[in-house]
Amino acid sequence: GVVVAVGIGSLFLQGLNLGIDFKGGSQITFETPQATSVEDVRREAAAIGRADAVIQGRGEIQNGGYRQFTLKTESLTAGAQTNLQSALRSEFEATSIGIKNVSASFSEQILRGAILAIIVSLALIVIYVTLRFEFKFSLPVLAALLHDILITLGLYSLTGREMTSATVAAILTILGYSIYDTIIIFDRVRENVPLMRRSSFAAIANQSLWETIRRSLATSFITLLPIASLLLFGGDTLKDFAFALLVGITSGAYSTIFIATPLLVVLKEREPEYAKRKEAGLREKLEAVEGPAPEEEAAPEPVAEAPVPAEPAVAGDGAAAAAAARREARRKRRRTRPHGRAR
Fold this sequence. Notes:
Elements: H1 2-13, E1 17-18, H2 20-23, E2 25-36, H3 38-47, E3 54-58, E4 66-73, H4 78-92, E5 95-102, H5 104-132, H6 135-159, E6 162-163, H7 165-192, H8 201-233, H9 236-268, H10 272-290, H11 317-335
Parallel strand pairs: 1-6
Antiparallel strand pairs: 2-4, 2-5, 3-4
């Protein structure tokens, strides 16, 4: 909850660092043979009339400067691009100069397409889960996926990473990976429902989690290994893509276990059948601890009896009774799991 709240706050206050794909304009990338400060590059851009340019250093900091830079500004004409390249070469001996131009209308089209792709994918997921299971199963899936998207976008906003079309591709990949994990667990829940006819839905969900959790965690950890390698050793574009995947898949593994499945239990235990099972389970636990409730009978007529002297308490009677109650509770728990222990 704290992570999601901080991410949403950053999205509202700071926003996303939208790349040229979504904002339009011109983007110039270049390298310098010596480390140069961002202020020096900004001063040179202002000298040729580009004081409004957004300049970012990339890579490792060396002596307070960078050797790789990205300069974003409004769309430049061919002449303005030539003047800027000449200034960068003469002042900083810049090399590997690359220029990318995107019109405002094209960037708006890309942004609309990205938002539409995410919305349509979520709608298709809800439809599939509803047809495969039931509608109540789709609501936890949707909550978990929104959780993963918010955390990914929130951390992008906090770290100031550039939001590009590659990031949208990473988010769609995260959605597919997260729902894969959730469907595996929900499918086991569906299989265990007819096997555990007297168990509460919480017990069914818990048993299903134990039967699939090792597979889910192993798959997630193994997937994160090449993603971490891309983040550490890949290029700048790959690093942004890998960062989104790293955050999203880690969040997806968490949300499947701790958000989607418990939320499904909350929704299903409101149904009359599972509500009765839950009450029966609570009564059994109470009886195991406190003993069966006394049956109501007609009160007998009081009969005068001779007083019986109280017997001295025997040490250890309370401990023996508690041990017997624990053994009885264990026997009842075993009877509610007829299919055996978790695999």
